[in-house]
Specification:
With 110 residues, this protein is mainly alpha-helical. The chain has a two-stranded antiparallel sheet with strand order 1-2. The longest helix is centred in the C-terminal third of the chain and has 18 residues.
Amino acid sequence: MSDLTGYQKYLERILASNEFASSQTYRDFLKYLFEAAVQEKELKELTIAVDFFEKSADFNPAFDTTVRSHIYKLRKKLETYYLKEGREDKFRLRIPKGHYKLIVIPNAEA
């Protein structure tokens, strides 16, 4: 188990924010990534496609950008949250570019 469990309150605050309140898909996706990080599960594009988006096992990311496009939009939603409601949060949940693992970093704005 990862030490991310201590950051659950930050996740809950994000999920309740205006940025995420109206988007159940992105709320669920962020929760999925958070739980995977807590469990220290190694996420690959295929794993996310099959487990979260319920794609078939023959999913081909060369032809289907579902995972990448959702990760991109989720990053943007998190950025917007931290520019507005999450500006004073002590920590940020972040998905580094080129990766699917959710990490926690100190918030320089706080």
